[in-house]
């Protein structure tokens, strides 16, 4: 578990609150309005993390994907403000966003970036795992991150953590 990055996720969530950013735990990222830019973006916890300079410097980033009028697929990695200008008008083309880290996307990118197992990544980033009243807020995410930092990662008790050792056989 990368404690420093998880602690920084709490800082990012607090920044989302303080700056009045739009938070939507049901979307990696979405653009509101006719111009694609950071100010018109709503995102979840992992989506906002993937848009922060500190996370980008560590290899976590956002990937935007869309099809043009000829159904040709386009991708744009979002690393700088200039990358937003390369995106089409969101009113003309549906843009899908996904966080990426070391060739992993979505929840797997979160698990790899924060060095946590899949159960813990789902606990932090999957809106279906939140039982709190809707809408899910950055405060909910901060509380969960603090729980993970204090108590450790979640373990799926239905799956063994590792294969048991092979029995040893001796000869007489």
Which helices and strands occur, and which strands form pairs?
Layout (H helix, E strand, L loop, with lengths): L2 H16 L3 E2 L6 E2 L9 E3 L1 H6 L2 H5 L3 E7 L5 E6 L2 H5 L10 E6 L2 E2 H9 L3 H8 L12 H14 L21
Parallel strand pairs: 1-3
Antiparallel strand pairs: 2-3, 4-5, 4-6, 6-7
Helix pairs in contact: 1-7, 5-6, 6-7
Name its key features.
disordered C terminus, three-stranded mixed beta sheet, 7 strands, alpha+beta, four-stranded antiparallel beta sheet, 172 residues
How do the strands of the widest beta sheet line up side by side? Answer: 5-4-6-7
Percent strand = 15-25%
Order of helices and strands: HEEEHHEEHEEHHH
Contiguous helical run count: 7
Average of per-residue pLDDT values? 85
- Which structural class matches the secondary elements? alpha+beta
- Unreliable residue stretches: 160-172
Walk me through the structure:
This protein is an alpha+beta fold and 172 residues long. It has one domain. It has seven helices and seven strands, in the order H-E-E-E-H-H-E-E-H-E-E-H-H-H. Helix 1 (3-18) packs antiparallel against helix 7 (138-151), helix 5 (106-114) packs across helix 6 (118-125) and helix 6 packs antiparallel against helix 7 (138-151).
Short description:
The protein has helices spanning 3-18, 45-50, 53-57, 81-85, 106-114, 118-125, 138-151; strands at residues 22-23, 30-31, 41-43, 61-67, 73-78, 96-101, 104-105. The protein is α+β, with helices and mostly antiparallel strands.
């Amino acid at each position: 578990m990368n404690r420093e990055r998880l602690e920084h996720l709490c800082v990012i969530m607090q920044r989302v609150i303080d700056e009045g950013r739009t938070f939507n735990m049901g979307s990696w990222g979405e653009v509101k309005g006719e111009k694609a830019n950071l100010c018109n973006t709503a995102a979840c916890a992992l989506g906002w993390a993937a848009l922060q300079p500190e996370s980008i410097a560590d290899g976590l980033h956002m990937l935007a994907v869309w099809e043009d009028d000829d159904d040709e697929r386009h991708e744009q990695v979002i690393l700088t403000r200039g990358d937003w200008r390369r995106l089409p008008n969101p009113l003309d083309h549906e843009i899908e966003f996904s966080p990426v880290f070391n060739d992993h996307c979505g929840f797997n990118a979160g698990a790899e970036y924060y060095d946590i197992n899949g159960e813990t990544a789902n606990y932090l980033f999957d809106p279906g795992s939140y039982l709190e009243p809707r809408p899910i807020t950055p405060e909910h995410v901060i509380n969960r991150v603090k729980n993970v930092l204090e108590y450790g990662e979640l373990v799926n008790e239905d799956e063994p953590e590792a294969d048991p050792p092979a029995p040893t056989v001796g000869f007489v």
